[in-house]
User: Fold these one by one.
Assistant:
Number 1:
Amino acid sequence: MEFLPVGPLAAAIIVIALAEGRAGFRTWGRRLLRWRVGWVWYAVALLFPAAFVLITGLITMALGASAPGLGQLTWSGLLTVFAVRLVNPLDGPLGEEPGFRGYALPLLQAARPPLLSAAILGVLVALWHVPLVLFGGLSLIGLPTTFAITFLYVWLFNRTGGSVLLTYLFHNSQGTFTVGSVGFAAADAGRAELIYFAVVVLAVLATMTLDRRAWRKAPRPATAVGRFSLRREQ
């Protein structure tokens, strides 16, 4: 059995084709390409994942850990990884975002508040990543981290009026700036992953505390599903 990140993308295409047809694809396509959002949200999408890793690294090193991989990181290397991940359908961002945030999330939010929708989607996304744990590509703490960070994806998606493009950039940045790239070894690596989980949880709690309105009701473009959404969005 092989873990294929392209699964959510393929599932969205199949379901839309069978259940909604051209109208569904038009709505889905607009959501995928929604780029007219404030510049600050581009900054959030690109910089938040890097900030999480930076904070995690600083705390871990303050606790006495060494980071041998830190000196090997270069901007050219990071930009190359970011660019490759942008166009690779067998990687997480392109394989997952069109399905999870592009189709499943609006469907959930059509009948549920954002907080409950995020919790349900978080469980689904975490379960989807279980094979990575079995194959050794993700540590066990990665599953609760995946669940927690799903709330940030939902917050970003709703705050940008249902833009999958922004969650796609967030996902891509998250995969480019990783705790593993810092090079912590053995026990230090495990401690760093726990700290990263705590940093993500604190970020989620910050959005819930400082931006409560975002969790009360999702904007209409972020809840539209199927051919009926075309009339609501026009």
Note: Residues 186-210 form the longest helix (25 residues).
Number 2:
Amino acid sequence: MHTVLSKDGTKIAYDRTGRGPALILVAGAFSYRKFPAQVQLAQLLSSQFTVYIYDRRGRGDSGDSQPYAVEREIEDLEAVIEAAGGSAYVWGLSSGAVLALEAAAGGAAITKLALHEPPFVVDASDRKPPQDFIPQVTELIRSGRRAEAIKYFMTKGMGAPGFVVSMMRMMPKVWTNLMAVAHTLPYDAALLDGYWDGKPLPVEQWSRVTMPTLVLEGPDSPVSLRHAACALAQGLPNAIHLSKKGLGHTKKLDAPKIAAELSAFFADKAQASGM
């Protein structure tokens, strides 16, 4: 384990493996640097890249200075980029994709960017979280009701059936890991604030995201994720859209298939695929 200090003094923990150009993996909700699928992905990519996988603020071995702000998470990613040599490729998954996108728009030294199923809602007919989603999640965590927060986030935010949460509660290790990071769910919700309303994306605010960008999604993913990926790829100045079976993230991550596409993209061999 390595650590770096973010701009506000918060310790950010990361692991580094492999050799080659720096590639930073940015996890989504419920994930952390020891999450098995993330570790597997890092190992698969390590033959071509020096892979950095870090605990986002409040998770694992990283600190959690308060008050939280999206800007602090952007600074955390920038600190890891600096530790990686001052510039890096970046892959972000789900809310991690939103974080990576916002960092790139703010001028972070990202040379290539892969955005994997950012959970925007861009079509009014697609399923949307409740309007009071963020305050509800925040209140559940504030009052110490982590299990309720997990269920609420998964069902009302991610659209998972209730029985999925019940099944997870019967898997002690899985549930323990979820409970350990549940207090960061308001952070993920904050990253999506304003992007869940079923309205067109405000692509003008990402006009500085001019580096080569790959937007990935799976054809078996919820339609809202597919609509979002397509809209984002069309709205960014230098992006391609890749839709391929095995790239969805709402079930178990297919690390080998994801690694293959990331390797191709960062090696300039990626091919776009339509909806």
Note: Residues 270-275 have pLDDT under 50 and may be disordered.
Number 3:
Amino acid sequence: MLHFILPEKNKTTAITLDNIMGAGEIITAPFYHKDGVQCAFFLIEIVPGSIIDVFDEATSGAEILQKGKEIIKNLVPWRFDVFENAELADNNFLRGSLTAVVRKPVLQLGASAILEMGDTVILNDPIVGQGGNNAIKMADAYARSILEHGTAAFDAHWMDKTFEAFWDYSKYVNHFSDIFLLPPAPHVAEILGEAS
């Protein structure tokens, strides 16, 4: 993710998402920089080895912005006039990768056990923005389970049972996220079209 300043004539109030089938997505949105400057950001989510997987050699915000502009110009040219003269808001950027995973929820430390939560247990691809929502709902489910459990032992068996009860809900969130990692099935495209 990269923060940049747009010329006044190009200020935007819209959130955009352009899906490059089989390659990834380009997401842009306006926001205010920590210094109070109105900016925008773009987030490019990449399928490894695809035509937009070109950032490995980019080591600075300027190089990432330049490569991002090239991708926009070549693949979503209807957006290029907004970004053509964009400048960095700062040299901070995030670059990385992740593999969505569901782990065992209990960490055994000698005689003690720890019930893990959030991304340490369920790491969703960020494509539909469910990670934070999922973590908050998990915290709520855990808190309710703690209150219902009373004074009984909070052992590994209780922890596994508590996580499994939450997973009965969360597995659908994971599936929803996974649907968007591949080209949409006809019924998914139809639902999204009707929703819009």
Note: The first strand starts at residue 2 and ends at 5.
